[in-house]
Write a structure and sequence with these properties.
17 helices, six-stranded antiparallel sheet, 26% strand, 472 residues, seven-stranded antiparallel sheet, Rossmann fold, Glutamine Phosphoribosylpyrophosphate, subunit 1, domain 1, alpha+beta
Length: 472
């Protein structure tokens, strides 16, 4: 999931700026997109399912009008939270005004908080934890002197790996959880507008210069009075940046914790080559997030790098595509081999990770059908052995191939001639040269920085749907 916001003194076409920012963050979510424009306290919103340019055309953007601030969201629909009803940003009308909220990541105590709120009479219309967050903040706002105080108090109740972007009639507030699981940064355009985004590449897309990333636990308030930083929650918990941001999630042209994502992935490839060398003729990366690691592997090993797979640029990321069937269908039309690169060659195939194993077997088969005599599969991440509760759609061990099969079995299942994973002890070296003080590697080693979720299901939860108008 990705968030983007913009705020300035003058009324401008902020919707178009958010549109371009969300386009730059499209890799973080392809389930839905939304924008809310604030014109002197009047909120105009539109959201829908699909990628950014499906949800917004020129006419739709123009209908959002002008304003001096806006926020937007691209959603990666995790299990049980798909559909237009769960699209963000969410707009709340309450006794003290309006609030729009966009979230990224996961709230591990969302189910418990939801039950508490339901018992107090609050009614939920979605299965999105963002609605829980909005109610927690709104409840605090009723007794708080300002929205930022309400957010500060709400932070004491929220647990998990999340970033929040909130817009009130006069302010935009950016929030990063106390562990700093996911990145959140801000910059400034030449016209004085401040821009907040999940990744620095989105700042580049609208011509904003990066100022800095929010620290874990930091709340930054943007208003006509300037910038106010609230650091009450900083330093209250060990830092735990999601290492999967370096491995897969982020764009390679972004910088996270002071480290280039491209360089982090190339470093992973080099470490992989040291741990799992092999005699081969060419190193091939799986587009797009495996390419940088493949370059690092080739450089370290001395084996030439080659472009062996071409990606259909009109197909989205298969890992975050909603549903296993959809993922498998996309793989069929997403990648095609270049026969001249692999024919008669021993190939090292470098992928960013092997999670469900959906893609790898098909790619090995593709390369061998194109004439590769050997395919040695390498993963620039360690084996996935545990669910993720912080925004990645891995809700149980059942779908994780490494949980149910040995390396020898996976090698046989994928049709590869050998298989090697990045070593667990190497994964925290990816951010070398950056300023991150700690990583979350729970999906690899099961060491969760927070409590794991307690799931409390309402008997009606499974019945909620976009067209459910039955009355029981």
């Amino acid at each position: 999931m990705g968030v983007f916001g913009i705020i300035g003194e003058e009324r401008t076409d902020v919707a178009s700026s958010v549109y371009y920012g969300l386009y730059a963050l499209q890799h973080r979510g392809q389930e839905s997109a939304g924008i809310v424009v604030n014109d002197d306290g009047v909120f105009t919103a539109h959201k829908g399912t699909g990628i950014v340019n499906d949800v917004f055309d020129r006419e739709r953007l123009e209908s959002l009008g002008h304003g001096n601030m806006a926020i937007g969201h691209v959603r990666y629909g995790t299990l049980g939270t798909k559909g237009v009803m769960n699209a963000e940003p969410i707009v709340i009308n309450h006794v003290k005004g309006k609030l729009a909220i966009a979230t990224a990541g996961g709230i591990v105590n969302a189910s418990v908080l939801k039950r508490e709120l339901e018992l107090q009479g609050m009614i939920f219309h979605t299965t999105n934890p963002a609605e829980v967050v909005s109610y927690v903040i709104t409840k605090e706002r009723i007794s708080s002197p300002s929205i930022e105080v309400a957010v500060e108090r709400a932070m004491n109740k929220l647990d998990g790996g999340f970033c929040l972007l909130l817009m009130s009639p006069r302010k935009i507030i950016a929030v990063r959880d106390k562990h700093g699981f996911h990145p959140l940064c801000y910059g400034r355009r030449e016209n004085g507008q401040y821009v907040i985004a999940s990744e620095s590449c989105a700042l580049d897309s609208v011509g904003a210069t990066l100022i800095r990333e929010l620290d874990p636990g930091e709340i930054v308030v943007f208003s006509e009075d300037g910038i106010k930083c609230i650091r009450e929650h900083c330093g209250k918990a060990p830092e735990a940046l999601c290492v999967f941001e370096y491995v897969y999630t982020a764009r390679p042209d972004s910088s996270i914790a002071g480290c280039s994502v491209h360089e982090a992935r190339a470093r992973a490839g080099a470490l992989l080559a040291k741990a799992h060398p092999v005699e081969a003729d060419v190193v091939v990366g799986v587009p797009d997030s495996g390419l940088d690691a493949a370059i690092g592997y080739a450089k370290e090993s001395g084996i030439p790098y080659g472009i062996g797979l071409i990606k259909n640029k009109y197909i989205g990321r298969t890992f975050i595509a909603p549903g296993q069937d959809v993922r498998e269908d996309k793989v069929k039309i997403k990648l095609n081999p270049i026969k001249s690169t692999v024919n008669g060659k021993r190939v090292v195939l470098v992928d960013d990770s092997i999670v469900r194993g959906t893609t790898c077997a098909k790619l090995v088969k593709l390369l061998k059908s194109a004439g590769a005599v050997e395919v040695h599969l390498r993963s620039s991440a360690p084996p996935f052995l545990n669910p993720c509760y912080y925004g990645t759609d891995i809700d149980s061990k059942d779908s994780l191939i490494a949980c149910n099969h040995t390396i020898e079995e996976i090698t046989q299942m994928t049709g590869a001639d050998s298989l090697g994973y990045l070593r667990l002890e190497d994964v925290t070296k990816l951010g070398d040269g950056g300023c991150c003080k700690g990583f979350c590697t729970a999906c690899f080693d099961g060491k969760y920085p927070t409590e794991t979720p307690v799931i409390i299901k309402n008997k009606y939860d499974s019945k909620i749907s976009d067209n459910d108008n039955t009355d029981e």
